[in-house]
Every structure is written in C-alpha cells, then in structure tokens.
Amino acid sequence: MASDQTSSRRWFLRSCALAGAGLLGSGSLLRGERLLAATGRALDPGDPEVPNEQIAKLLKDLFGDRPIRKGHLSLDMPVVAEDGRVVPVIIESDLPMTADQYVKAVHLIVDHNPDPHLSAYHLTPALGSVSLQTRIKMKRTTWVRAILETSSGDVWAAYAHVNVSLNGCG
Amino acid sequence: MTIGDARIRIPDRISRGDLIIVNAIVSHPMDTGFFRTADGQPIPAFFIKDVVVTYGDEQVARFEWTSGVSKDPIVSFTLKADKEAPLAMVWTDTKGGVYKQSVNVAFTSA
User: Fold this and answer.
1) How many CB atoms lie within 10 A of CB A32?
2) Interchain proximity B64–A122, CB inside 8 Å
C-alpha cells in the first residue's frame, strides 16, 4: 500500500512537471511566431519586441503594413521614473512642417499600461515644428514608443525604456 | 484651482514669423477608474479626452488623450506666429465638461 502511494504520487508529480514544461515550451514558441505573423514586419536590431497581441493589433490598426523605421524623431524620457504618476515626456522631430510636407500625427504608446495608446497628437503645418512636452502616468517598467506619421504616409519611430518605481495607474 | 481652470502661456515679446513655445495647463483630476477612496469606494474614470487648438479661425492641432495623461495635464507645443490673432484651446472631458482658455498673439513693435 505504502509503495503504491509513493509511486502514484511520483507519477503524478512527474506528469505535472512534463505537462507544465510542454505548455511553457509550446506556448512561448507559438507566441513568438503568432506575433510576428500579426505584425507582418521584421524588427530592426535594437527595436523593442512587440510584447503582446494588444500592441500588435494597435500597431496594425494605426499603421497597417507600412514599415516602422527608427529615426527623424526623438523621445526624451527619464531612464528611471521614481513616481509613475508623473513621468515627463519630450517628443521632437527634425522633419519639415510645410504645407505640402508635414507631420500629420504623433502617437504615444506605453506597452504595459492598462490603455497602451496613451495619446495621439494631430498636428498641422501652422505649428512650425514638432516639439511636444507633456507628463504621463506609467504602471510599470516598460518600453515607450513614439511613432509619427507624415502627410505622405511615412512612419518614423523612437523608443525609450523607462524603469518605473511606483505604479502610477492604480 | 477648481476643475477646468486653465492657463496658456506664450512669450511676452513676439515678432512676426517667430516660432513661439506655447505652454498650457488645465486643472483636472484625470481619474483612471482603477483607484479607490480611503473607504473602499471605486473612483470612476473621469478624464480629458479631447483638446482642440485654434489660431485665428484655423484649427492648428487636436490632441486625443486618455486617463494615462497625468493629473492637471500640461502640454507644450510650438506655433508659427505669422498673424495677430487669438490662440484658443478647448478641453473636453468624459462627463461632457468643456473648458476654454485663450490668449492674444500680438506683435511687439520693434
């Protein structure tokens, strides 16, 4: 009786461990492939990975299949934000703001916030340049993406990794 | 400051064609809906979702915000001062509150 019990417990534990490992393995592999398929774009070296389906869908909805390249935009944020309730953001671009060539919109996306699409700034040539400042809330340490769209449809991005000490979203 | 008090700051001295920096602040709690009061009651989401900037009679910018923007939201942007006209901003929140503020862009005679 005693030997039966131990062997059945051992069998149970081993099958649990195997099942768990199997789940982990297949899950992570599948996830990577699925996200790549969902975004349909290759990552440049140094670009943050798309962390989940929500961000993949958001990028797809906003920019379709257009490539998101790094450049022409700077996103200035602290490396460490002590208070997630107030994190300063400075967004600047060197692109021209003329009547026939201008930056149409700038999107600010915080990967691990409850609502990742934090804000959208719709601009016109009357502003003269792209130089935006604001303060945002951040839930936890994550990548922040600033992505702009020009009047001719080009998409440019800048990324910042911010370490958040105090959750500012509740 | 009560909810909706707003200020817009532009430089004192402006010449025609200057690229000026506009700073704006509005007083608003920007509640996310995730926090609770001290006695455990949830605080419903209440935030500014839309900001419209007009210069003269032209809409020069529109910002879409969520509750992810900090309490008492500030925003700063540049403006090409090419005419003497009022610069007006309108903030709209999720409960239909509309807050307005404007300043006059006037050129200093050199």
Assistant:
1) 12
2) yes
B15-35 residue pLDDT tens = 999 999 999 999 999 999 888
* Chain A partners within 8 Å of B58 (Cβ): 124, 126
A37: exposed, middle or buried (Cβ count in 10 Å: 0-12, 13-18, 19+): exposed
Which residues sit opposite A91 in a β-bridge?
A75, A132
Interchain CB contacts (distance < 8 Å): A and B: 100
pTM above 0.90, yes or no: no
Is residue B39 a part of any domain in this protein? no
The DSSP call for residue A114 is: S
- Structural domain of residue B65, as residue ranges? 6-33+45-105
Query: Minimum mean pLDDT among B17-31, B34-48, B57-71: which range?
Result: B34-48
Flag whether residue B35 sits within 8 Å of chain A, measured between CB atoms. Answer: yes
A133 inside 8 A of chain B by CB: yes
Domain-located, residue B38 = no
Total structural domains within chain B: 1
Q: Is residue B1 part of a domain?
A: no
- pLDDT for the residue numbered A29: 46
- A86 contact residues in B (CB cutoff 8 A): 70-71
Shortest CA distance from A124: residue in chain B:
B60
CA-to-CA distance for B21 and B75, rounded, in angstroms? 11
d(CA B5, CA B95): 16
pLDDT digits (tens, 9 = 90+) for A98-135: 999 999 999 999 999 999 999 999 999 999 999 999 99
pLDDT digits (tens, 9 = 90+) for A17-65: 666 555 555 544 445 444 544 454 555 666 888 888 899 999 999 999 9
Q: The domain that contains B92 carries what CATH number?
A: 2.60.40.10
Which tokens sit at B37?
């009061």
